Amino acid sequence: MEGSDAKNNNNNGSQSVRVAVNIRPLVTPELLVGCSDCISVTPGEPQVQIGSHSFTFDYVYGSTGAPSSRIFDDCVEPLVDALFHGYNATVLAYGQTGSGKTYTMGTNYNGECTNGIIPKVMHMIFKRVEDTKGTTEFLIRVSFIEVY
């Protein structure tokens, strides 16, 4: 592993569930009132520390982990590839209010919505379908749910 790359090399497809943590940076209002990070990342490892507790995941992004922009490439793109080999896939964002789920998934249409996971997945799926047009027939079913 290089630098602060938090990618786990145990990504050989033998796991059916993988867990990635995306650490949201502090936002301006939090910084203005003197908030500080309460979580730290073990350099080069997919592990975080909160106080005296350590937690290991498959991937850690943000903070001093791998950059958040890699979430799609590392975690989601392989799932989209698997769709075209007959597998189903689910991406679930879970966390408390304000933790960055909507931003990460790209369902907040007040700005850079095309940077999120959902728009990237849809673009990738329809590009793959277009690239094989005339040689393969596709039936695409997509579900989306946002629970508050």
From TrEMBL:
InterPro entries listed in its UniProt record: Kinesin-like_fam, Kinesin_motor_dom, Kinesin_motor_dom_sf, P-loop_NTPase
Binding site for ATP: 95-102
Domain Kinesin motor: 16-148
GO CC list: microtubule associated complex
Coiled-coil boundaries: none
Gene3D superfamilies membership: Kinesin motor domain
Residue intervals passing through the bilayer: none
Pfam families xref list: Kinesin
An MF annotation (GO) of this entry: microtubule motor activity
A Gene Ontology biological process term: mitotic spindle organization
Key words of the record: ATP-binding, Motor protein, Nucleotide-binding
Protein family according to the UniProt entry: Belongs to the TRAFAC class myosin-kinesin ATPase superfamily. Kinesin family.
Protein name: Kinesin motor domain-containing protein
